[in-house]
Amino acid sequence: MSDYSFFKMFGSVKIVQEVTNSTTTAGNDPAIKSNSNTAATNSPNALASIPTTTIAPLNFKSQKKRYQHGKKNSYYASKHLRKLKKFKLQQQQQFSIIKIYSSGQLKSLFEESLTHMLGGTRRFVQTFTGIMLSVFTVRQGIGYLFSKSTGWAVPSLFFSDSLHECSQGLAPFLFALLVIQSLNIDDKYILMYGNSNKLTVRKVTLQFAMCLVNYAPKNILWWSLTGLLTGFIATIIVQTRLAQNKHWDDESLNEKNGDSPLDMTQGRFRPLPLWKTLHDAVRKGLVVVATVLPFLLLCNGYYTRERFVDSTALNQLSYDRYLFTFVIMTAPRRGDPPFLTRTLDSYLKNWPDQAPEAGSLYDRFQTIVYTHFTTHLEFDRAKALYQPTERGQRYLKWIREEGDTLDQRSHVSKALGFAAENYQSTYIALVEDDFPVCGAKEWRQIENVIYAANLESPGHCGVFVGTGGSGLFLKPKIAKLVSALLLKYPSLPPDIIIQQCILGNLQECKQCSQTLVTSKTLLMYHIGYNTSTSLDRSYKKNEFQCGWRHPFNGDPNVITL
């Protein structure tokens, strides 16, 4: 949306700045008055209908100390009060033409308005520079707070975009300046259009519209929130500095009953206390933040709404017989808990019950339940439960090798080699029997990540949506390579070998460097925390659950989708 289209409905538009209650002494600066008069008289676009005479502020001369009281002092105080009221009325009727903008110069409204308010170009540059440095610093802190620090400790506060969201132009800095503008929230512009038509609009309103135009092309919620927070803090600092510059407030007078000022020293009235000035600044800043924030959240909700890949599009990723071959590793556990049954059920309930059409997406799914134990009660129980069903017959294959030795390294190596050599599959997914899928939504997210991985990184070696040795979607050639590496590096745990390979950290897997694709959060959760088949590991009940930040999310060598 261009600036021209924003004002197209008004035709030829001119903007005149109205000066209300300035918070600085810029109005007393002779240089500024001279520039204003020059602009008003020499500019060919100046509006003749707007009076441009400059009224000098009252110069209250020092009064000699009077020892008399009563009517005489009351007379002098009332005289000064009448002069002040008259001057205030004249100021409210006075318009100072700062500049007449064309539609292509609207971005300078922030600079022009705040320069006048802050008291000069130098102060504006200093303020803007401080805002830029503060935004960068605060953005880093917010990114860490709502990603790595809360990703595991408080998963409900984890937002992956807070870590990965990129900025776009000056939007975060403009939002900060918007909050600072709240110090003069009543300042207005007069938009002149047509022959004699005009529209009065607050500066804050017009500047907010400009910020939304900058926000529209792309979602930058976290950068914008950083700008609002930085601007709110800067507002308090700016107001404190202005108060320290001895700006006196004439509203402290009791104008209703005509009482004399409480103190009159050298023609100046007693200023408002600092706490009251800051309270007013905080109140105005909160009004702007509370008005802007709902718009940002609505836009963010639109940009981040869930979109699931169509099954037809996912099915066209390859023409192999199988798109996914799941290899579920299972072994006897203490107490024979029904973990395998729960894990199988989490997959099967997301796949259609009726026979899929030949060549369709779900016709290209299969699951191999693999064990190396002759005696495995949970394996037998799950097989007896699912084998008679249509889903069990269509999607499940049961493979048991005789033995009674717990050797995870050898078993995983044989299972991956078996799947890679005997089935033409696009992905071989390694899953442990105690890592069910979180739900139907998370299953669709797995499909999304797989589809996006083929678009963002066509040459990737694998996709990782779980943790440990579960949720690893490997290309067949990588599955064969990993099968051999598991036996080559006996000193490393099996899951670490697989992870290091798809990260490209092993010499044999250099082709996988910077190609690994992961989900933002864990899409599978751990249920076997107290019955681990690894004797050297122990887990807590609430570890590695749904919604946790993926362990590789934030690694610059990993693509997070």
From TrEMBL:
Which stretches does the entry tag as region Disordered? 24-44
Q: Which keywords accompany this UniProt record?
A: Membrane, Transmembrane, Transmembrane helix
Keyword Transmembrane helix appears in the UniProt entry: yes
Where composition is biased (Low complexity), the residues are 34-44
Q: What residue ranges are annotated as transmembrane?
A: 220-238, 285-303
Task: Note the superkingdom of the native organism.
Answer: Eukaryota
Name of the protein in its database record: Uncharacterized protein
Q: Which organism is it from?
A: Parasitella parasitica
Supply the gene name.
PARPA_10387.1 scaffold 40148
